[in-house]
Prior knowledge:
By secondary structure, the protein is an alpha/beta fold. Helices cover 49% and strands 8% of the residues. The protein has helices at 14-23, 38-43, 50-54, 59-67, 81-91, 99-112, 123-136, 141-147, 164-171, 186-189, 196-207, 214-230, 250-261, 268-289, 305-311, 326-337, 355-361, 386-399, 419-437, 445-463, and strands at 29-31, 150-154, 178-180, 235-240, 292-297, 299-300, 319-320, 344-349, 374-376. The protein is globular and about 70 Å long.
Amino acid sequence: MxxxxxxxxxxxxxxxxxxxxxxxxxxxxxxxxxHLSPQEIYENKKPKDIAQLWLAGDHYKWRxxxxxxVPEDYITxxxxxxxxxxxxxxxxxxxxGNPLYxxxxxxxxRYFGITETLSPETAESIWKKCNEKIxxxxxxxxxxxxxxxxxxxxxxxxxxxxxxYHKKLKADxxxxxxxxxxxxxxxxxxxxxxxxxxxxxALEKAVSREITxxxxxxxxxxxxxEFFDKTGCCASDQALAYIPFAxxxxxxxxxxxxxALAGKPLTVDETDKYRTDLLRFLAAEYHSRxxxxxxxxGAMRNNNSRMFQKLGADTGFDSINDCQxxxxxxxxxxxxxxxxxxxxxxxxxxxPKDNYVLGTMLGNFQxxxxxxxxxxxxAWWFNDNYDGMRAQLTALANLGVLGKFVGMxxxxxxxxxxxxxxxFRRILCELIGDWVEExxxxxxxxxxxGLVEDVSFGNAKNYFNLKV
Length: 468
Protein backbone atom coordinates (compact mmCIF):
# COMPACT_ATOMS: atom_id res chain seq x y z
CA MET A 1 0.00 0.00 0.00
CA UNK A 2 1.32 3.46 -0.93
CA UNK A 3 1.92 5.98 1.79
CA UNK A 4 -0.59 8.85 1.90
CA UNK A 5 0.53 11.89 -0.07
CA UNK A 6 4.25 11.12 -0.24
CA UNK A 7 6.69 12.74 -2.70
CA UNK A 8 5.26 10.58 -5.51
CA UNK A 9 1.64 11.45 -4.77
CA UNK A 10 -0.46 10.63 -7.89
CA UNK A 11 2.71 9.79 -9.86
CA UNK A 12 2.02 6.11 -10.31
CA UNK A 13 4.52 5.29 -13.07
CA UNK A 14 8.22 5.80 -13.72
CA UNK A 15 7.43 8.05 -16.69
CA UNK A 16 5.08 10.24 -14.64
CA UNK A 17 7.71 10.69 -11.92
CA UNK A 18 10.40 11.59 -14.44
CA UNK A 19 8.43 14.14 -16.47
CA UNK A 20 7.03 15.72 -13.30
CA UNK A 21 10.52 16.18 -11.87
CA UNK A 22 11.95 17.56 -15.11
CA UNK A 23 9.04 19.59 -16.46
CA UNK A 24 6.67 20.58 -13.66
CA UNK A 25 8.06 20.47 -10.13
CA UNK A 26 10.02 23.74 -10.18
CA UNK A 27 8.30 25.46 -13.10
CA UNK A 28 6.90 28.92 -12.21
CA UNK A 29 3.18 29.65 -11.89
CA UNK A 30 1.26 32.15 -14.01
CA UNK A 31 -2.16 32.40 -12.38
CA UNK A 32 -4.02 34.15 -15.18
CA UNK A 33 -7.49 33.92 -13.63
CA UNK A 34 -8.04 34.39 -9.91
CA HIS A 35 -10.08 36.43 -7.45
CA LEU A 36 -7.30 37.61 -5.16
CA SER A 37 -7.66 41.14 -3.82
CA PRO A 38 -5.04 43.58 -5.17
CA GLN A 39 -5.67 45.70 -2.08
CA GLU A 40 -4.77 42.79 0.20
CA ILE A 41 -1.64 42.09 -1.87
CA TYR A 42 -0.59 45.74 -1.65
CA GLU A 43 -1.33 46.18 2.06
CA ASN A 44 0.40 42.85 2.77
CA LYS A 45 -1.01 42.35 6.24
CA LYS A 46 -0.02 39.42 8.42
CA PRO A 47 -2.99 37.08 9.03
CA LYS A 48 -4.35 36.77 12.53
CA ASP A 49 -4.44 32.96 12.53
CA ILE A 50 -4.94 29.90 10.34
CA ALA A 51 -8.73 30.30 10.45
CA GLN A 52 -8.55 33.77 8.92
CA LEU A 53 -6.03 32.61 6.35
CA TRP A 54 -7.78 29.35 5.50
CA LEU A 55 -11.52 29.57 6.09
CA ALA A 56 -12.52 33.18 5.46
CA GLY A 57 -14.22 33.54 2.09
CA ASP A 58 -13.65 29.91 1.03
CA HIS A 59 -17.05 28.70 -0.16
CA TYR A 60 -15.61 25.28 -1.14
CA LYS A 61 -14.99 24.61 2.56
CA TRP A 62 -18.28 26.22 3.57
CA ARG A 63 -20.32 23.90 1.31
CA UNK A 64 -18.62 20.83 2.75
CA UNK A 65 -19.25 22.01 6.31
CA UNK A 66 -22.93 22.65 5.56
CA UNK A 67 -23.20 19.17 4.01
CA UNK A 68 -22.01 17.75 7.34
CA UNK A 69 -24.69 19.66 9.24
CA VAL A 70 -22.37 22.26 10.78
CA PRO A 71 -24.39 25.27 12.05
CA GLU A 72 -23.88 28.45 10.00
CA ASP A 73 -22.49 30.24 13.04
CA TYR A 74 -19.36 28.06 12.71
CA ILE A 75 -19.11 28.81 8.98
CA THR A 76 -19.89 32.48 8.28
CA UNK A 77 -21.14 33.43 11.74
CA UNK A 78 -19.66 34.87 14.90
CA UNK A 79 -17.97 31.83 16.39
CA UNK A 80 -14.26 32.27 17.05
CA UNK A 81 -11.65 31.33 14.48
CA UNK A 82 -10.53 28.54 16.80
CA UNK A 83 -14.03 27.05 16.98
CA UNK A 84 -14.51 27.31 13.21
CA UNK A 85 -11.19 25.56 12.62
CA UNK A 86 -12.17 22.73 14.96
CA UNK A 87 -15.45 22.27 13.09
CA UNK A 88 -13.60 22.13 9.78
CA UNK A 89 -11.22 19.53 11.23
CA UNK A 90 -14.23 17.57 12.46
CA UNK A 91 -15.65 17.14 8.94
CA UNK A 92 -12.33 16.46 7.21
CA UNK A 93 -12.22 12.64 7.58
CA UNK A 94 -15.64 12.43 5.91
CA UNK A 95 -14.41 14.26 2.78
CA UNK A 96 -12.91 11.15 1.18
CA GLY A 97 -12.86 11.66 -2.61
CA ASN A 98 -13.40 15.42 -2.34
CA PRO A 99 -10.50 17.56 -3.64
CA LEU A 100 -10.71 19.50 -0.38
CA TYR A 101 -9.08 16.54 1.33
CA UNK A 102 -6.08 16.68 -0.98
CA UNK A 103 -5.88 20.50 -1.10
CA UNK A 104 -6.06 20.73 2.68
CA UNK A 105 -3.18 18.34 3.21
CA UNK A 106 -1.08 19.74 0.36
CA UNK A 107 -1.40 23.17 1.96
CA UNK A 108 -0.52 21.84 5.40
CA UNK A 109 2.57 20.14 3.97
CA ARG A 110 3.79 22.86 1.61
CA TYR A 111 3.27 25.92 3.81
CA PHE A 112 3.44 24.56 7.35
CA GLY A 113 5.54 21.40 7.05
CA ILE A 114 2.76 19.40 8.71
CA THR A 115 2.37 15.80 7.51
CA GLU A 116 -0.27 14.73 10.04
CA THR A 117 -3.78 14.37 8.64
CA LEU A 118 -6.37 16.82 9.92
CA SER A 119 -9.02 15.26 12.16
CA PRO A 120 -10.74 15.96 15.49
CA GLU A 121 -7.84 14.18 17.21
CA THR A 122 -5.12 16.32 15.62
CA ALA A 123 -7.04 19.61 15.34
CA GLU A 124 -5.73 21.32 18.50
CA SER A 125 -2.14 20.34 17.74
CA ILE A 126 -2.34 21.51 14.11
CA TRP A 127 -4.09 24.75 15.15
CA LYS A 128 -1.23 25.49 17.51
CA LYS A 129 1.55 24.54 15.06
CA CYS A 130 0.06 26.60 12.23
CA ASN A 131 -0.42 29.66 14.39
CA GLU A 132 3.11 29.43 15.77
CA LYS A 133 4.43 29.46 12.20
CA ILE A 134 2.16 32.35 11.22
CA UNK A 135 3.34 34.31 14.25
CA UNK A 136 6.98 33.67 13.31
CA UNK A 137 6.38 35.26 9.89
CA UNK A 138 6.36 34.37 6.21
CA UNK A 139 2.58 34.32 5.71
CA UNK A 140 1.69 37.74 4.35
CA UNK A 141 0.04 37.72 0.90
CA UNK A 142 3.24 38.72 -0.87
CA UNK A 143 5.35 36.20 1.01
CA UNK A 144 2.92 33.38 0.18
CA UNK A 145 2.85 34.36 -3.50
CA UNK A 146 6.64 34.49 -3.72
CA UNK A 147 7.03 31.27 -1.73
CA UNK A 148 4.71 29.60 -4.26
CA UNK A 149 6.94 30.59 -7.22
CA UNK A 150 4.21 32.74 -8.79
CA UNK A 151 5.48 35.21 -11.40
CA UNK A 152 2.16 36.84 -12.32
CA UNK A 153 -1.48 36.91 -11.23
CA UNK A 154 -4.41 38.39 -13.12
CA UNK A 155 -7.11 39.56 -10.74
CA UNK A 156 -10.78 40.10 -11.64
CA UNK A 157 -11.85 43.74 -11.83
CA UNK A 158 -15.02 45.65 -12.66
CA UNK A 159 -14.90 48.21 -15.49
CA UNK A 160 -15.67 50.99 -13.01
CA UNK A 161 -12.74 50.07 -10.76
CA UNK A 162 -10.08 52.74 -10.23
CA UNK A 163 -7.29 50.09 -10.33
CA UNK A 164 -5.69 52.11 -7.54
CA TYR A 165 -3.90 49.14 -6.01
CA HIS A 166 -2.69 47.79 -9.32
CA LYS A 167 -1.00 51.12 -9.92
CA LYS A 168 0.55 51.08 -6.45
CA LEU A 169 1.81 47.52 -6.91
CA LYS A 170 3.28 48.36 -10.31
CA ALA A 171 5.20 51.24 -8.72
CA ASP A 172 6.45 49.05 -5.86
CA UNK A 173 9.69 47.52 -7.15
CA UNK A 174 10.19 45.46 -3.95
CA UNK A 175 7.56 42.92 -5.08
CA UNK A 176 8.68 40.93 -8.10
CA UNK A 177 5.40 39.19 -8.97
CA UNK A 178 3.33 41.06 -11.55
CA UNK A 179 -0.25 41.81 -10.50
CA UNK A 180 -2.34 42.64 -13.56
CA UNK A 181 -6.01 43.57 -13.80
CA UNK A 182 -8.48 41.54 -15.85
CA UNK A 183 -11.59 43.22 -17.24
CA UNK A 184 -14.81 41.62 -15.89
CA UNK A 185 -17.93 43.30 -17.41
CA UNK A 186 -20.52 41.00 -15.83
CA UNK A 187 -22.44 43.91 -14.35
CA UNK A 188 -22.55 45.61 -17.74
CA UNK A 189 -23.98 42.42 -19.25
CA UNK A 190 -26.43 41.93 -16.36
CA UNK A 191 -29.01 44.37 -17.70
CA UNK A 192 -31.84 42.40 -16.07
CA UNK A 193 -30.22 42.51 -12.61
CA UNK A 194 -31.34 44.85 -9.80
CA UNK A 195 -27.67 45.86 -9.55
CA UNK A 196 -27.58 47.23 -13.12
CA UNK A 197 -28.83 50.75 -12.38
CA UNK A 198 -26.41 51.31 -9.44
CA UNK A 199 -23.58 49.91 -11.57
CA UNK A 200 -24.31 52.39 -14.38
CA UNK A 201 -24.06 55.14 -11.75
CA ALA A 202 -20.63 53.80 -10.73
CA LEU A 203 -19.52 53.77 -14.36
CA GLU A 204 -20.73 57.35 -14.76
CA LYS A 205 -18.51 58.33 -11.87
CA ALA A 206 -15.55 56.53 -13.46
CA VAL A 207 -15.93 58.38 -16.78
CA SER A 208 -17.08 61.66 -15.19
CA ARG A 209 -20.27 62.02 -17.21
CA GLU A 210 -23.87 60.87 -17.39
CA ILE A 211 -24.82 57.76 -19.39
CA THR A 212 -28.34 57.98 -20.81
CA UNK A 213 -28.09 55.85 -23.96
CA UNK A 214 -26.72 52.52 -25.11
CA UNK A 215 -24.27 54.21 -27.46
CA UNK A 216 -22.95 56.24 -24.52
CA UNK A 217 -22.59 53.05 -22.49
CA UNK A 218 -20.44 51.45 -25.19
CA UNK A 219 -18.33 54.58 -25.49
CA UNK A 220 -17.76 54.57 -21.72
CA UNK A 221 -16.81 50.87 -21.72
CA UNK A 222 -14.35 51.47 -24.58
CA UNK A 223 -12.71 54.20 -22.50
CA UNK A 224 -12.44 51.88 -19.53
CA UNK A 225 -10.94 49.14 -21.71
CA GLU A 226 -8.31 51.62 -22.86
CA PHE A 227 -7.67 52.59 -19.21
CA PHE A 228 -7.27 48.92 -18.24
CA ASP A 229 -4.97 48.35 -21.22
CA LYS A 230 -2.65 51.14 -20.11
CA THR A 231 -2.55 49.56 -16.64
CA GLY A 232 -1.25 46.28 -18.06
CA CYS A 233 -4.46 44.32 -18.64
CA CYS A 234 -4.16 41.42 -21.09
CA ALA A 235 -7.37 39.50 -20.37
CA SER A 236 -11.11 39.85 -19.98
CA ASP A 237 -13.59 37.51 -18.38
CA GLN A 238 -17.30 37.05 -18.96
CA ALA A 239 -19.47 34.72 -16.87
CA LEU A 240 -22.66 33.55 -18.58
CA ALA A 241 -25.15 30.72 -18.11
CA TYR A 242 -25.13 30.33 -21.90
CA ILE A 243 -23.89 32.33 -24.88
CA PRO A 244 -26.83 34.26 -26.37
CA PHE A 245 -27.16 35.10 -30.02
CA ALA A 246 -30.01 37.34 -31.18
CA UNK A 247 -29.64 40.09 -33.77
CA UNK A 248 -31.16 43.53 -33.14
CA UNK A 249 -31.28 46.98 -34.70
CA UNK A 250 -29.65 50.00 -33.10
CA UNK A 251 -33.12 51.38 -32.34
CA UNK A 252 -34.17 48.17 -30.58
CA UNK A 253 -31.02 48.18 -28.46
CA UNK A 254 -31.51 51.79 -27.40
CA UNK A 255 -35.08 50.95 -26.42
CA UNK A 256 -33.97 47.97 -24.32
CA UNK A 257 -31.32 50.04 -22.56
CA UNK A 258 -33.72 52.89 -21.72
CA UNK A 259 -36.30 50.39 -20.51
CA ALA A 260 -33.73 48.90 -18.13
CA LEU A 261 -32.69 52.33 -16.84
CA ALA A 262 -36.34 53.06 -16.13
CA GLY A 263 -36.53 49.92 -13.99
CA LYS A 264 -38.97 48.12 -16.26
CA PRO A 265 -38.80 44.30 -16.58
CA LEU A 266 -37.17 42.89 -19.73
CA THR A 267 -38.05 39.81 -21.73
CA VAL A 268 -35.53 37.02 -22.35
CA ASP A 269 -35.45 38.04 -26.03
CA GLU A 270 -34.58 41.62 -25.07
CA THR A 271 -31.79 40.60 -22.71
CA ASP A 272 -30.40 38.16 -25.31
CA LYS A 273 -30.32 40.91 -27.95
CA TYR A 274 -28.58 43.31 -25.60
CA ARG A 275 -26.00 40.76 -24.42
CA THR A 276 -25.28 39.57 -27.96
CA ASP A 277 -24.55 43.05 -29.21
CA LEU A 278 -22.54 44.10 -26.16
CA LEU A 279 -20.48 40.89 -26.18
CA ARG A 280 -19.64 41.42 -29.84
CA PHE A 281 -18.69 45.03 -29.19
CA LEU A 282 -16.46 44.04 -26.28
CA ALA A 283 -14.86 41.17 -28.19
CA ALA A 284 -13.90 43.51 -31.03
CA GLU A 285 -12.29 45.87 -28.51
CA TYR A 286 -10.34 42.98 -26.99
CA HIS A 287 -9.20 41.80 -30.41
CA SER A 288 -7.85 45.22 -31.34
CA ARG A 289 -5.61 45.16 -28.25
CA UNK A 290 -4.50 41.54 -28.41
CA UNK A 291 -6.34 40.65 -25.21
CA UNK A 292 -7.60 37.18 -24.35
CA UNK A 293 -11.37 36.77 -23.99
CA UNK A 294 -12.39 34.24 -21.33
CA UNK A 295 -15.94 32.87 -21.42
CA UNK A 296 -17.00 31.04 -18.27
CA UNK A 297 -20.17 29.21 -19.24
CA GLY A 298 -22.71 27.25 -17.23
CA ALA A 299 -23.02 28.51 -13.64
CA MET A 300 -26.42 28.72 -11.96
CA ARG A 301 -25.92 31.26 -9.22
CA ASN A 302 -27.58 32.20 -5.91
CA ASN A 303 -29.97 29.24 -5.87
CA ASN A 304 -30.86 29.59 -2.19
CA SER A 305 -32.74 32.89 -2.01
CA ARG A 306 -32.95 32.91 1.78
CA MET A 307 -29.20 32.52 2.18
CA PHE A 308 -28.54 34.98 -0.65
CA GLN A 309 -30.53 37.59 1.24
CA LYS A 310 -28.57 36.78 4.38
CA LEU A 311 -25.01 36.39 3.05
CA GLY A 312 -24.95 37.71 -0.53
CA ALA A 313 -23.26 36.23 -3.60
CA ASP A 314 -20.27 33.85 -3.73
CA THR A 315 -21.04 32.21 -0.41
CA GLY A 316 -21.52 28.62 -1.55
CA PHE A 317 -25.00 28.46 -3.08
CA ASP A 318 -24.14 28.16 -6.77
CA SER A 319 -24.32 25.03 -8.91
CA ILE A 320 -24.10 23.72 -12.47
CA ASN A 321 -26.64 24.83 -15.08
CA ASP A 322 -27.74 22.56 -17.93
CA CYS A 323 -28.43 25.07 -20.72
CA GLN A 324 -27.83 24.21 -24.37
CA UNK A 325 -24.78 26.19 -25.47
CA UNK A 326 -23.49 24.97 -28.84
CA UNK A 327 -25.60 26.94 -31.32
CA UNK A 328 -25.35 30.34 -29.63
CA UNK A 329 -21.63 29.93 -29.03
CA UNK A 330 -21.01 28.94 -32.65
CA UNK A 331 -23.00 31.82 -34.11
CA UNK A 332 -21.38 34.33 -31.72
CA UNK A 333 -17.85 33.24 -32.59
CA UNK A 334 -18.64 33.03 -36.31
CA UNK A 335 -20.07 36.56 -36.34
CA UNK A 336 -16.72 37.81 -35.01
CA UNK A 337 -14.59 35.58 -37.23
CA UNK A 338 -16.51 36.75 -40.33
CA UNK A 339 -15.34 40.34 -39.79
CA UNK A 340 -11.85 39.49 -38.55
CA UNK A 341 -12.54 40.48 -34.92
CA UNK A 342 -12.48 37.18 -33.03
CA UNK A 343 -9.96 37.56 -30.19
CA UNK A 344 -7.91 34.82 -28.58
CA UNK A 345 -10.58 32.99 -26.61
CA UNK A 346 -10.64 30.56 -23.68
CA UNK A 347 -13.87 28.58 -23.36
CA UNK A 348 -14.69 27.20 -19.91
CA UNK A 349 -17.65 24.95 -19.19
CA UNK A 350 -18.98 24.29 -15.72
CA UNK A 351 -21.10 21.41 -17.01
CA PRO A 352 -18.91 18.45 -18.04
CA LYS A 353 -21.65 17.31 -20.43
CA ASP A 354 -20.29 20.09 -22.66
CA ASN A 355 -16.65 18.96 -22.65
CA TYR A 356 -17.02 17.56 -26.17
CA VAL A 357 -19.06 20.56 -27.31
CA LEU A 358 -16.21 22.91 -26.43
CA GLY A 359 -13.53 20.42 -27.45
CA THR A 360 -14.93 20.34 -30.97
CA MET A 361 -15.84 24.05 -31.15
CA LEU A 362 -12.15 24.94 -30.82
CA GLY A 363 -11.23 23.48 -34.18
CA ASN A 364 -13.78 25.59 -36.05
CA PHE A 365 -11.99 28.87 -35.33
CA GLN A 366 -8.27 28.16 -34.94
CA UNK A 367 -5.85 30.43 -36.78
CA UNK A 368 -2.19 30.74 -37.77
CA UNK A 369 -2.05 34.06 -35.89
CA UNK A 370 -1.66 32.11 -32.61
CA UNK A 371 -1.06 28.46 -31.81
CA UNK A 372 -4.12 27.28 -29.92
CA UNK A 373 -5.92 30.59 -30.52
CA UNK A 374 -9.16 29.07 -29.21
CA UNK A 375 -8.59 27.21 -25.94
CA UNK A 376 -10.60 24.73 -23.88
CA UNK A 377 -10.19 26.16 -20.39
CA UNK A 378 -9.07 23.96 -17.52
CA ALA A 379 -11.52 21.97 -15.40
CA TRP A 380 -13.27 24.76 -13.53
CA TRP A 381 -14.91 25.13 -10.11
CA PHE A 382 -16.97 21.99 -9.54
CA ASN A 383 -14.71 20.16 -12.01
CA ASP A 384 -11.28 21.02 -10.57
CA ASN A 385 -11.03 17.63 -8.92
CA TYR A 386 -9.14 14.46 -9.86
CA ASP A 387 -11.79 13.00 -12.17
CA GLY A 388 -12.82 16.37 -13.60
CA MET A 389 -9.26 17.31 -14.51
CA ARG A 390 -8.53 13.97 -16.13
CA ALA A 391 -11.82 14.18 -18.06
CA GLN A 392 -11.04 17.68 -19.38
CA LEU A 393 -7.46 16.78 -20.28
CA THR A 394 -8.59 13.58 -22.01
CA ALA A 395 -11.33 15.35 -23.96
CA LEU A 396 -8.89 18.02 -25.10
CA ALA A 397 -6.33 15.40 -26.11
CA ASN A 398 -8.95 13.39 -27.99
CA LEU A 399 -10.40 16.36 -29.86
CA GLY A 400 -7.67 19.01 -30.01
CA VAL A 401 -3.98 19.46 -29.23
CA LEU A 402 -3.06 18.92 -25.59
CA GLY A 403 0.50 20.16 -26.13
CA LYS A 404 -0.75 23.72 -26.86
CA PHE A 405 -3.01 23.90 -23.79
CA VAL A 406 -2.61 27.01 -21.57
CA GLY A 407 -3.09 25.01 -18.38
CA MET A 408 -4.37 25.55 -14.88
CA UNK A 409 -5.88 28.50 -13.00
CA UNK A 410 -6.74 28.73 -9.30
CA UNK A 411 -9.98 30.75 -9.72
CA UNK A 412 -9.48 31.36 -6.01
CA UNK A 413 -9.66 34.04 -3.34
CA UNK A 414 -7.16 32.26 -1.11
CA UNK A 415 -3.44 32.99 -0.91
CA UNK A 416 -2.91 29.35 0.10
CA UNK A 417 -4.48 27.93 -3.07
CA UNK A 418 -1.33 27.52 -5.19
CA UNK A 419 -0.85 23.81 -4.43
CA UNK A 420 -3.84 23.39 -6.77
CA UNK A 421 -1.36 24.02 -9.59
CA UNK A 422 0.81 21.22 -8.20
CA UNK A 423 -2.28 18.99 -8.02
CA PHE A 424 -3.07 19.71 -11.66
CA ARG A 425 0.54 19.10 -12.76
CA ARG A 426 0.69 15.77 -10.96
CA ILE A 427 -2.57 14.68 -12.62
CA LEU A 428 -1.27 15.83 -16.03
CA CYS A 429 1.96 13.87 -15.59
CA GLU A 430 0.12 10.81 -14.30
CA LEU A 431 -2.17 10.83 -17.36
CA ILE A 432 0.68 11.21 -19.85
CA GLY A 433 2.72 8.62 -17.95
CA ASP A 434 -0.16 6.16 -18.24
CA TRP A 435 -0.31 6.63 -22.01
CA VAL A 436 3.44 6.08 -22.37
CA GLU A 437 3.61 3.00 -20.18
CA GLU A 438 0.58 1.49 -21.92
CA UNK A 439 2.41 1.84 -25.25
CA UNK A 440 0.08 4.57 -26.53
CA UNK A 441 2.88 7.16 -26.94
CA UNK A 442 6.67 6.82 -27.34
CA UNK A 443 8.94 7.10 -24.29
CA UNK A 444 10.41 10.46 -25.34
CA UNK A 445 11.14 11.85 -21.88
CA UNK A 446 12.93 14.98 -23.10
CA UNK A 447 10.06 16.03 -25.37
CA UNK A 448 7.35 15.15 -22.85
CA UNK A 449 9.13 17.04 -20.06
CA GLY A 450 9.16 20.10 -22.32
CA LEU A 451 5.48 19.60 -23.16
CA VAL A 452 4.59 19.40 -19.46
CA GLU A 453 6.60 22.56 -18.79
CA ASP A 454 4.77 24.34 -21.61
CA VAL A 455 1.32 23.27 -20.39
CA SER A 456 2.28 24.25 -16.83
CA PHE A 457 3.64 27.69 -17.74
CA GLY A 458 5.18 28.37 -21.15
CA ASN A 459 2.06 28.16 -23.31
CA ALA A 460 0.13 30.62 -21.11
CA LYS A 461 3.13 32.95 -20.95
CA ASN A 462 3.21 33.13 -24.76
CA TYR A 463 -0.58 33.20 -25.19
CA PHE A 464 -1.03 36.21 -22.90
CA ASN A 465 2.19 37.89 -24.14
CA LEU A 466 3.51 37.93 -20.59
CA LYS A 467 6.90 39.59 -20.21
CA VAL A 468 8.76 38.16 -17.21
